[in-house]
Amino acid sequence: MLTLNETHEAGLKSWVESANEHDCRFPIQNLPYAVYKPADGDDFRVGVAIGRQILDLRALAALQPFCGAALQALDACQGDSLNALMALSAEHWSALRLSLSRALRAGSAHQAKLQPLLSEHATALFSLPAQIGDYTDFYISLHHATAVGSLFRPDNPLLPNYKWVPIGYHGRASSINVSGSDFLRPLGQTRPLPDAPTPSFGPSQRLDYELELGIFVGSGNAQGRRIDMDEAESHVFGLCILNDWSARDLQAWEYQPLGPFLAKNFASTISPWVVTLEALAPFRVPFSRAADDPQPMPYLASEHNSAAGAIDIQLEVALSTRKSRAARHEPHVLARSNFKEAYWSIAQLITHHTVNGCNLRPGDLLGTGTLSGPAAGQEGSLLETTRGGKQCVSLPWGEDRYFLEDYDRVVMHAYCHKEGYPSIGFGDCAATVLPAG
Amino acid sequence: MLTLNETHEAGLKSWVESANEHDCRFPIQNLPYAVYKPADGDDFRVGVAIGRQILDLRALAALQPFCGAALQALDACQGDSLNALMALSAEHWSALRLSLSRALRAGSAHQAKLQPLLSEHATALFSLPAQIGDYTDFYISLHHATAVGSLFRPDNPLLPNYKWVPIGYHGRASSINVSGSDFLRPLGQTRPLPDAPTPSFGPSQRLDYELELGIFVGSGNAQGRRIDMDEAESHVFGLCILNDWSARDLQAWEYQPLGPFLAKNFASTISPWVVTLEALAPFRVPFSRAADDPQPMPYLASEHNSAAGAIDIQLEVALSTRKSRAARHEPHVLARSNFKEAYWSIAQLITHHTVNGCNLRPGDLLGTGTLSGPAAGQEGSLLETTRGGKQCVSLPWGEDRYFLEDYDRVVMHAYCHKEGYPSIGFGDCAATVLPAG
Questions:
Q1: In angstroms, rounded to a whole number, what is the distance separating the alpha carbons of residues B205 and B200?
Q2: Pairing mode of beta strands A268-270, A236-243
Q3: H or E element in which residue A53 lies
Q4: Domains in chain A, start-ordered, CATH in brackets?
Q5: CB pairs under 8 A between A and B
Q6: How far is CA B314 from CA B20, B273, B279, in A?
Q7: Which residues of chain A does B368 touch, with a Cβ-Cβ cutoff of 8 Å?
Q8: B226-260: pLDDT as tens digits
């Protein structure tokens, strides 16, 4: 999975001109997948992004342009979700990527055939890229865990298991939406006010975002068969952006002893584009632990993981409000962080999740948990930025926020950047909070 | 849903003779659904139990014997899961039940047509009755919460939210198996031993069962639309038995702060038969709270719930071991309890789950949590029976247990009994623990 090949060459150009522009997030080195409906289309289908265009893979499959594993993989793109493609193997995904890269490359003999299969990204509609069977959310930022722990448990912020166990819990699959799906502010119970005889009930007053990445499982495992570290990454199809909306007041009251429930399951939002692990290969970095942190237990360790288990992905969360949009202000960036600082790697999440025999299925989604950095301006949630709602955030257009208000719109971005290489972008992950219904 | 109708008449007899036997758990008043493959069949299909036989509803649908809503409901039984039937309405389920009851009744004109569609229950294979999109597990036995809480948190057994919030969390859908699917003992991390520098790793030493009921959601709700108490039961298709296997040593180490994860998601087992809520109507009982317990908050209260929100369902868990089976001993009953003692009702679980806008989908499964009673002999888990592994259970064939050992087989039963009415049974929920792989 780490091997760089011709699809990664920095100098590659596409015959789709917009893919070669300097600030394009979907150059030919990226080739992420989504499920979309073109402006003039009747239904949803699988596509691959190239510049400001989307190539219709269902229509391409009908032309039978490839052979071998690439053709098999393309044939799996004829439904309205990525699950069938995900269910194949890393070899299939890689073969399809190579064939698409060659077909979209400047000078390709396929250009005339493919040109009619392109449509505008800007006017497309998107659906969830996959049917998500199970959704697991992890908690892999030590900085987030420490910051949040100190708010929920001031005397005991980081629990003794944190540095040994990749802490995770099951989330709700049914309420995961694709970017652009707005949602209602949740109602719920909150802790009784001082001297009140009963809990309060009403719209959440402490609604928050969580800046995460989502990891789409590709080929799964049979129940009872664990996935070892050395093969873990070959089970991962790709990554998306994930906003794990959280109602902090509901969470504080309900989460003991079995974890968050209604505080999270009203809505989660993911970006439509799934960037494959192979596209991220040029951005792999060593995975290391601080000198005073324990080394991972043997079942969570591998040479490859130490050498290149982390990925340098920059993350960003921005806010717009009804007022800022009316005045045409740009969304205000609230925080920036980086996935490479996570305490656990993707391979460790896969291996830990299956070590007890739990089966993963194609299309399952693993959330990383909020990806906060250690410094100010790197907080992946308002809970952290505002120190539990105590310090307000001033927005440049004259409003301020402790938590999200109605009609606030949160937009997240992720991208990989390095000198001399085209940027790999993840697209947008955005949604607006509507008033409680 | 509470209305008794002609399908509930105690005196009804079927032309399927085995349904009229005194100890039959599938009399004509029951009519539960499953997905099964007859001994001579090629594939799985939907069936309804009658006595010691199963009626093939896919084959019945081909005969178009009913009309109106009953026909529509029967047409939804032509796939290999109950999801399409579940997605209809309580009116449809009721119409199908009435038509099946009339067709299977002694003297029915349909007898000759239906007779060839029957096959033996004893030789059938079963699959999961539905594709389970999301699985939520609740914690509705106050007795269980108190007993377990006192083991995990001796100083703080019952948390302040318990009597206000129906505590629940998301479980794993992928590893839910139908009765008869044996599974491997899970591996995992456990708390460091005293003076050990690192956690331990290996097969769970404290493997346990949890005696629960599963609630299958029928028609769901759109995201953002809550289901009020008055309509909650009309969204419930029926109930099954659920064994929520638990690795207590993994759980104790991993569960803070986000709840149980690998301690539960290696396997859960459900009975193949889904007993409809309508079949349980004769066993409804008032739902009440102890005088010193708070009344439910308004959104969790309704007149119907107070009058008849609970259901009198007897539960039983029994154990056999490799030794006991070799010596042909009957499984030893470890505990008996009753669903009617639960602190929260089915309607309250549905309403609470959706109050924040979370969407339920047809085929979603809600577990009740371990259904323990207050007295000795009513513990729904070994954790409770053995007081956290401190007092062993003596088995009549000369073995004893703190937790489950390899090749132990746990079988759960549930049934409704009352004077002058045929017993309504749920079938078996059974599986065997195999050695860690």
A1: 11
A2: antiparallel
A3: strand A53-56
A4: 6-127 (2.30.30.230), 135-434 (3.90.850.10)
A5: 200
A6: 21, 16, 15
A7: none
A8: 999 999 999 999 999 999 999 999 999 999 999 99
